[in-house]
Amino acid sequence: MEKPLLSVRNLTIDIPVGGGTLHAVRGIDFDLNRGETLCIVGESGSGKSLTSLAVMGLLGKTIRRTADRMDFDGTDLTRANPRTMRKLRGARMSMIFQEPMTSLNPAYTIGDQLTEALLLHKPVGREAARARAVELLEKVGITAAESRLSQYPHQLSGGLRQRVMIAMALMCEPELIIADEPTTALDVTIQAQILRLLYDLGREMNMAMILITHDLGVVARVADKVAVMYAGELVETGPAADVFNTPSHPYTRGLLRCIPLPGKTERGSTLGTIPGIVPSLVGDIEGCAFRTRCPYAEAACRSEIPRQGSAGHAFRCIHEDGKRQAEEATA
Amino acid sequence: MTRQSTQSSPVLELRNVTKTYKVKQGLFGKARPLTAVNDVSLSLPRGEVLGLVGESGCGKSTLAKILLGLEAPTHGQVLVDGEEIGAQDRLSLARRIQPIFQDPYSSLNPRKSIFDIVSLPLRVHGVGGPQDWEKQVREILDIVGLPARVMNTYPSQMSGGQRQRVAIARALIMKPEIVICDEPTSALDVSVQSQILNLLGDLRREFGLTYLFISHDLAVVEHLATRVAVMYLGRIVEEADVAGLFDHARHPYTQALLKSVLTPEPGLGVPDTQLGMAYPNPIDPPSGCQFHPRCPLATAHCKAKAPRPVPTPQGLVECHLYDTESPMFDNKAA
Amino acid sequence: MAHIDNTDPLLQEITGPTPGQMLRKRVFGHQGLLIGAVVLIILLFIAIFAPLLAPHDPYAQSLMNRMEPPVFLGGTWEHPLGTDHLGRDYLSRLIYGARVSLLIGAVAALISGVIGTAMGVAAGYFGGRVDMVVTFLINVRLAMPVVLVALAVVAILGGSLQVVIVVLGLLLWDRFAVVMRASTLQVRGREYVAAARAIGASTPRVILSEIMPNIANNLIVVITLEMAHAILLEAALSFLGLGVQPPTPSWGLMVSEGKNMMLFEPWLVLIPGAVLFLLVLAINLMGDGLRDVTAPENRS
């Protein structure tokens, strides 16, 4: 088996808050191979965005990150000094944010911002950088790319700005792209186009991608691997087809029942819900974090939760197959 | 809900409603008209849910503001129960139409207790006294699934889903006939969204409410709506009942919208909507059919001539392909 | 379902403090604010109870006892802070002077606060022409040099407490207007304002009960700053002889009267100067503190 491009073991993120420590991410593991797309899906506060920032080394100073291992193609990210991280960011791994309006600098032209990273990281001239920028803008489907270089971000629509962000992330041909809710702020038709673009480019350039999203529809369509995150833990991980076809953790199934499925869910019928709320992440959680909302919770859920399933498709639950078959039988 | 009316008579009707803004470009630029809502006619029968879908900037939120009396239409009429809105005073309009907004973090005044927020309509309309208010607030909170003790708390102490329930309680306390839901769940987490959608469905059945449900999420619209109108650049390009629209979409734009819905079904990949990408600038709308620059089926005729609304048994559609008098009329498509 | 720990999930959720509780906690955790407030309250107390606290009549002259030094410079306890060039008890004049300073600060800030807030809120809420007119007025006002205009007006009308208060009140509204306009613009776009309008609430009601509570924190901060500003301007005008007229005890006037003897009897200038400094510092500490304390809510 090939060596994964990114390998994370026991990643923990702690944020000091007024009344103690908020354990935002509680010991998660994942691997990502070249050319693969991993979707981290979860609701707000699950720690998915912090996870991506932790990989990029972009967490704030007050936030504490620890990991047994965080290996990016032989570089140990837990020990990398700021200079090494700066070299990696932009050149070998880059990030696409949710809100293209705030992540582009309004004071500089599109061309300046596109070429900046390339000029910084690679020994290329200004002309070559501009040529590369035009090439990429065309690749992300922007017409009249040459003339766009002298435009400012406010002159572009939201969809175009997000395309520029993608082109910017691709300038140095990174091996890893982290996209945090890249299409959430966009309209549905634009969302489909942007996702398709990311998907195709990833395949074409053999890039690994981590896509952070709350949208299960997006996950199902673009992910190779899925990681479902709840209260700072990965409750279920596996190939997209397995996770969606045989969702084993009760939380994953609960989420899937919440969304109306055109053609499958009866129109106007009552949708599934997950009662209760996410537990407070300040302090320790005893046993399974989902037990306060889980229909199958029992006393044993307060103890250590085993990881079940195969190496490919794993989930954390004390019940065999997370009561999936029992649930399907009653349905 | 004592007003006598038959099931089919529209409780809300829009006739040729147009809203134009003057937009100034630059300090000394000339003001140019921006037509946010362009000659929209819609009718909403009592007890139905009209889903209004379209991309941002298509005019759906402006339409909601007109219905709430927050903006006056430039032309056209809005009729509630057959009476024109302009002629009624704002208070009686407010009794009949109430909004639920998208962002429950912005729609509740952070300085006010939940009791103050929910009872505001009663106080504005001078209904009853403080004793009644508390009783009514208690009742409505119970209906939306909140315990009475939240009355003394503040919005900052609540979660997004709870806040949206408070917003719903405020909208319903005067027992309106029509509720304008402007993206009521798009700021919420998936598990909370389904709770709010269920609540909205239950409330409609229980109180015979009529909804105008504005959303960009087609799966949600399909689930909740009985009729659907698709808006593009201020115009309604297709309108049909929910089955007709989702099972047999006719307008190429509707088809593209439906195609772009990403359902959680692995292996299907990301669809190719075949839309030209850019949403046009509403200040410079395209000639002819406004959708033609993005339409995969567009011809020279579409660029030259704007289609007229074609009435069909299913509902209206604005496309040359379905107009028997158009040279582009396509028997197969129709 | 018997194993679910929280039978009432809502109970868990509503545990945070109310906005009022949070504010109280922040207020009592802010040292600058507390120090400023304590000093200000003491000065306010002194001003209110001046007749009871002052050992002598501040106007009573005693030419025999002119320019007696304070106790700490070898004076007697009869006049703890000495006497001025007319033999008036310096401590008593200082105590009565607090009345003048605080009165001018408070009333001038109140007048300009009402004018500026009305203009700023109207401009922010209604926009369009109203905004254009208000913005124009603000620019006109900003183009006028305050001290010069105040000097000119006082020179024409003659100096008195009332004139100084009114002139300062009519001149210091610019910051109120600018800040209130910006805050209103920000709040006006919130959906709860649209919701209140959709409920049928009248415009005054929307402004008073939806907008004002959410911009009040900014207003309080500007009030404190302008109070300090007005107090300093009064002192400056009085120093130049165009403010409060003698024999009214005003700190600015006291500095002015003492300046001739400054080289020989520096305490005549230093004592009123120091209390003026203390008062303005206290007010500014409080204003800064209030801004710190109310800011976190704006962020959330």
TrEMBL record, chain A:
Keywords, sorted A to Z: ATP-binding, Nucleotide-binding
Name the record gives this protein: ABC transporter ATP-binding protein
Lineage summary: Bacteria, Pseudomonadati, Pseudomonadota, Alphaproteobacteria, Rhodobacterales
From TrEMBL, chain B:
UniProt name for this protein: ABC transporter ATP-binding protein
Domain of life: Bacteria
Organism: Lutimaribacter degradans
Keywords linked to the UniProt accession: ATP-binding, Nucleotide-binding
UniProtKB/TrEMBL annotation, chain C:
Name of this protein: ABC transporter permease
